[in-house]
Amino acid sequence: MAIATTNPATGEVLKEFDALSDAEIEEKVARAAQAAQAHRATSFDERAGVLRGAADILDEDVDSLAVTMTTEMGKTITAAKAEIAKCAKGLRYYADHAPEMLADDIADADAVDASRAFHRFQPLGVVLAVMPWNFPLWQVIRFAAPGLMAGNVGLLKHASNVPQTALYLEDLFRRAGLVDGGFQTLLIGSKQVEAILTDKRVAAATLTGSEGAGRSIGETAGKQLKKVVLELGGSDPFVVLPSADLEKAAKVATTARCQNNGQSCIAAKRFIVHTDVYDEFARLFVENMSGQKVGDPTEDDTDIGPLATEQGRQDVVDLVTDATAKGARILTGGEVPDGPGWFYPPTVVADITTDMDIYGEEVFGPVASLYRASDTDDALRIANDTDFGLGSNVWTTDDAEIDKFVDGFEAGQVFVNGMTTSYPAIAFGGVKNSGHGRELTKFGIREFCNVKTVWIA
Questions:
Q1: Fewest 10 Å CB contacts: which of 97, 274, 289, 406?
Q2: Residue 170: CA atoms inside 13 Å, Cβ hemisphere, count?
């Protein structure tokens, strides 16, 4: 993929960039290695000052930065501004809480025949971050904020369709006063990643992206015995049981499916409804989905903008076409609109069977798969019948059902009577083909730390 800003609302290529040469990459890796030594020697207060400064800059730049994000990947301007605000909040959260998260963990000295025993959390060094385009700012900040507070430095290989956002991130931390070389953007293609990860000066990697990308990074890191955190997408279940508030569930389901134009790893994608309330939920859900406004993402009242890439839309079209050819019903949407840009309408697909591609694959667009479950056991069976295990949702007011699904979901996250989302204060990550490792909270900040055991006689 060319490194370029292409407006997905029009298909127009606005700006192209050259990939870094091998010599330029070497210079950046060398700078990062030097920065790692300098940054690890800084205090928590100094690091926190950088993060708070970056948050203040985001507040100041919100309008212009939102336009850049919308222009590069098509998210609505309202969503872009909300993402920027979330990033500023995340930066301040880690500035405030990282010292307590990384305080020495005191062990039982008597149990190990010591006068003192504890665990100290120390940075690994240079971390390579390979990031996707769908949340071009937040995906990076949720690594960078805890990573920098832990004393690590970052090299960012961002998605090739958001180069201006990627360059902004490097400039953001420079302006905030981070040590020279402490966070650098690498405008490179995917084929150049392996050589960087195998470099001895790079200690670890984190990736959010496709299964294929995750397997590739994981294989390379494994051969080098390097730590890696992988978040590889999901096909999250959204289970609705008879005691649920159906009107609220249907409204939240629409937001959960259509957020970020349907391009979110933790977006609810499979809607599994108990047969007793299936018909009524389906009616309400279709009504809400069909009421979403698709259009110019720069307009404040637009709900759904274009998909980020032409190939991304084609992938959605192919999954829906395959399903309908094999007997699925379209309850709303399903037709590619005329005109420029890579738009796709909010769509609900019902009567899905296991031989359809849509049953097992993640749909990265505003397409909801609707399933009828005969009872709670059947609902849980359908929910877990996937290779993914990122987020999950259940809607019920029955305590026994809540316990059943909290325990029974094969997922990294369970949200009850609410929409799956990410917060700095709770862990984020998945199981099965959704990857391994955790981001955010104390679990995320410690992923790229050496947990050093200290025993004193």
A1: 406
A2: 18
**CA-to-CA distance for 441 and 451, rounded, in angstroms?**
16
Question: What distance in Å separates the CA atoms of residue 142 and residue 129, rounded to the nearest whole number?
Answer: 11
Of 52, 214, 103, give the one whose Cα is nearest residue 451. 103
pTM of the entire predicted model: 0.97
Cα–Cα dist 159/134, whole Å: 9
Place of tokens 């629409």: 254
Known catalytic membership, residue 46:
no
Q: 164: which 2 tokens?
A: 């201006």
- Is 289 in contact with 348 (CB distance < 8 Å)? yes
87 catalytically annotated: no
pLDDT tens digits for range 113-159: 999 999 999 999 999 999 999 999 999 999 999 999 999 999 999 99
Q: What is the pLDDT of residues 24-72, one digit of tens each?
A: 999 999 999 999 999 999 999 999 999 999 999 999 999 999 999 999 9
Is the Cβ–Cβ distance between 257 and 332 less than 8 Å? no
CA distances from 55 to 51, 58, 92 (A): 6, 5, 7
How far apart are the C-alpha atoms of 300 and 81, rounded to whole Å?
11
Q: What is the mean pLDDT of residues 192-210?
A: 97
| Pairing of β 105-106 and β 12-16 | unpaired
Tokens matching residue 129 = 């971050």
Amino acid at 318: D
**Element spanning 22, H or E:** helix 22-40
Query: Rounded to the nearest 5 degrees, what angle is found at the Cα of 17, between the Cα atoms of 13 and 19?
Result: 135
Q: Which of 265, 401, 439, 449 is catalytic?
A: 265
> Distance between CA 394 and CA 371 in Å, rounded?
14
Contact 168, 244 (CB under 8 A): no
What residues have CB less than 8 Å from 219, skipping those under 6 apart? Answer: none
The structural domains of the chain, ordered by start, are 4-232+432-456 (3.40.605.10), 236-416 (3.40.309.10)
CA distance 255 to 261: 10
Residue 185: closest CA among 146, 155, 206, 140: 155
Read off the pLDDT of residues 80-95 as tens digits, 9 standing for 90 and up.
Answer: 999 999 999 999 999 9
| List 72, 231, 362, 401, catalytic entry | 231
DSSP sequence for 257-319: HHGGGG--TTSEEEEEEETTTHHHHHHHHHHHHHTPPBS-TTSTT-SB---S-HHHHHHHHHH
Q: How many residues are given for the chain?
A: 457
> What amino acid occupies position 230?
L
